[in-house]
Inverse folding.
């Protein structure tokens, strides 16, 4: 952990920004870099019109472009003293987080949990729980 990059998945939510704070603290403490990761899931409709007015490929391309723009803006606001990379992947979030962590030999994954409970937890896939259970490196889950 002390010499390897920290992987910090983000969905650009407030909770993810909160987790990022922990990732940056640890990266500063250990003098390691951070890789921010955003996973674009399969498109299921345009977020503005709520209907599929484009082909799935066009929609995926639009989603990737929006994510890339958000990633550039985010990295532009960060402390320049750290080495920060932004990466965008396609697919299932937990799977892509785990693959990326192994690929870069991450020292740790720091990620947010949206803290769903009860019926809401049952209806939504818990990405943080899946990553924590399957990762080969330490995982810090932040609420």
């Amino acid at each position: 952990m002390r010499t390897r990059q920290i992987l910090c998945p983000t969905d650009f939510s407030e909770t993810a920004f909160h987790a990022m704070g922990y990732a940056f603290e640890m990266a500063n403490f250990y003098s390691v870099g951070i890789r921010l990761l955003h996973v674009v899931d399969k498109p299921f409709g345009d977020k503005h019109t709520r209907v599929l007015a484009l082909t799935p490929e066009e929609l995926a391309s639009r989603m990737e472009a929006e994510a890339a723009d958000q990633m550039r803006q985010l990295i532009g606001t960060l402390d320049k003293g750290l080495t920060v990379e932004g990466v965008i992947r396609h697919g299932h979030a937990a799977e892509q987080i785990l693959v990326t962590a192994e690929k870069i030999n991450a020292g740790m994954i720091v990620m947010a949990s949206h803290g769903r409970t009860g019926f809401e937890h049952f209806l939504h896939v818990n990405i943080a729980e899946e990553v924590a259970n399957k990762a080969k490196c330490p995982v810090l889950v932040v609420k």
Q: What stands out?
A: DSSP finds five helices and five strands in the chain. The mean pLDDT is 83. Helices lie at 14-30, 56-76, 93-104, 118-123, 127-134.
